Amino acid sequence: MSDANKPPTDAFTSPMSPQAAETASETAFVGRPLKLVVSGPVGAGKTAFIQSLSETEVVETDEVASEDIGKERTTVAMDFGTLSLDGIPLYLFGTPGQDRFDFMWEILCEGALGMILLVAGDNPKDFPHARNILEFVTSRVPVPFVVGVTRQDLPRVWEPEDVADYFGLDDDQVVGLNATSPTASVLALITLLRLINQYDYEPNL
Predict the structure, then answer these.
(1) What Å distances lie between residue 201 and 85, 106, 119, 183, CA to CA?
(2) Kindly report the CA angle at 71 between 65 and 76, in degrees rounded to 5?
(3) For residue 33, what pLDDT band results from cuts at 50, 70 and 90?
(4) What is the distance between the alpha carbons of residues 135 and 1, in angstroms, rounded to a whole number?
(5) 22 CA to centre of own chain
(6) Cβ partners under 8 Å of residue 7, min gap 6
(7) Under 8 Å CB-to-CB from 168, ≥6 apart: which residues?
(8) In the prediction, which pLDDT does 13 show?
(9) In the chain, where are the structural domains located?
(10) Is residue 10 exposed (0-12), middle (13-18) or buried (19+ Cβ within 10 Å)?
(11) Contact 115/39 with Cβ under 8 angstroms?
(12) Spatial separation of the C-alpha atoms in residues 116 and 106, rounded to whole Å
């Protein structure tokens, strides 16, 4: 793995760039709030991603993990954050990562305009679980999605194009990012919004 495809580290004064706002304003659903879902295995960076973007305090449902999942606390219901794209409200819903909460994956994806599936680029053993989440969700709610490969700030991680090969996706459907970086997170949002614009997709509201 190389150090290429690392997210920009320049200062970012607002979670949303003019480029993202312009992309969002081109969607077919500008007359109502846009709902996006952030999913992925435990530890992929879902909560950090929403925290890096939200303009309001993030609602978290973290509890002490009841089993060994590699960290002390984990999301058990959802994370929720909001931001505004050129005056259009955007709602970000983060799903739990554990299989025992899989009923929440489908619930949270109902009515969603798109989904970002996060995978930790330094933890390929979780890729099969990420694939299971993706197949579970898209088989029930055929939502447009992109895959975000997190932890691109580390020296040894899978590159986005390698993850695209693993999932059998086009390279432009997979992005690399550091989930704690607002700049990198917003670029992932732009990628998703552009993909949504290519779909003839009407979410079930």
Answers:
(1) 20, 17, 25, 27
(2) 40
(3) confident
(4) 27
(5) 20
(6) 152, 153, 176, 177, 178, 181, 183, 184, 187
(7) none
(8) 34
(9) 18-198
(10) exposed
(11) yes
(12) 14
The answer on pLDDT for 159 being more than 90 is yes
Secondary-structure percent of the chain, ordered helix, strand, coil, rounded to 5:
35, 20, 45
CA gap 95, 166 in Å, rounded: 22
CA distances from 190 to 90, 92, 96, 116, 148 (A): 13, 14, 23, 11, 12
Take residue 7 and report the two structure tokens written for it: 């997210």
Tell me what the mean pLDDT of segment 170-182 comes to: 95
Name which residue leads in pLDDT, 87 or 135.
Answer: 135
% pLDDT > 90, the chain:
42
Query: What is the rounded end-to-end Cα distance, in angstroms, of the chain?
Result: 42
Q: Which fold has domain 18-198?
A: Rossmann fold (3.40.50)
Distance CA 188, CA 190 (A): 5
Question: Hey, what are 143's tokens?
Answer: 């939502």
